[in-house]
Amino acid sequence: MAETRKASRFIVPVAVAGVAAATIGLVPALAASGDPDLPEITAQQLIEKIAASDTQTLSGTFKISTDLGLPSLGGLTSGLTSGLGGGGGSASADPSEKLTQLISGSHTLRVAADGPDRQKLTLIDGSDEYSLIHNGDDVWGYDSKSNEAFHEKGTGVAGDGAEKGEELPGTPKQLADEVLKAAGDTTSITVDGTAKVAGRDAYQLVIKPKQSGSMVQSVKIAVDAANGTPLKFTLSSVEGGKPVVDAGFTKVDFGKPAASEFTFTAPKGAKVTEGAAEKAAEEAGGEAGDHGKLPEGFEEGFPGFGKVFGGSGEGMNVIGEGWTTIAKLDTGAPAPKTDEAPKEIQGFLDSFGDKVTGKFGSGTVFKTKLVNALLTDDGRVYVGAVTQDALVDAANAGK
Question: N or C end of the chain, less CB within 10 A?
């Protein structure tokens, strides 16, 4: 039990590695080839074209590659599991667990959508597949490898108030909307040529922070020239190298998918879990959809990255605006010492944490190519898609 308690103290700093997962979500990525000759268009006209897009049906295949600049996670998961007294790596059909695979490496997915009530996403892993299906009032997750299914009733995958089929979680359309609705005086938006994506002619919309101190170099969105549907999403870091997210369709068809595409019945012998998370939230006196909310106005002040931060937002302060927004949280407890962590976790923390000092005292900056977090020794946390210097400056000013 002592080891379990010791390991649990390090979940918060280790979770910094996963913070960018919410930013990435399920962004489909695209391969581009050739530069089609298209009529000139202004950035404002292209944004209006995206906003006016009424695509409600599509199907296709896309690839997503993510590179957060993290050290290898090999052995960390098993170390955490054993340190917390958990079992050994059994498969799960719960989408909240299964889709975390997308935070690293390259993956191939198939997607289908028919309006706001029917969507399907399939993660392909060799001969194994994991499918997430939304059909009306039902949401199913099915893992062919373990023959396990997850079922939830009364939950819309497309999200509250979704009006179009392209609102499938994490599509380029959804990501583009999040970025564009938050763009303001802190953002530069231009059109940078054209591209060929999955056989479709597309314009390239480039979004960049005007502010210094952001970890974001640029966001590039390939927009279908005919119907305004975002086809590709590429997020690049100021650190250079591979994009943090490079996601896009390799095949896409805007025709209506067959109704059978969204029909699912659990195979014989499959283990079916009925909405455990939803039931637990209701029994606790709250609604499942209430978790992960941010302080009011935070998403608007942090272009494209409002959903990076989980938690209730209680005790959280927002510093700055635009691309250099920083969230400050006072945990009220001294930070754990990394040299007291189980060795599996200690090696991981040391590999992407830098010791820093300043007027605020001392602490450790945990780094990715997108989101950085400063954990001070006295228990304060500063986190944002900003540079290490920006975090230290915020901590010094907040002392």
Answer: N
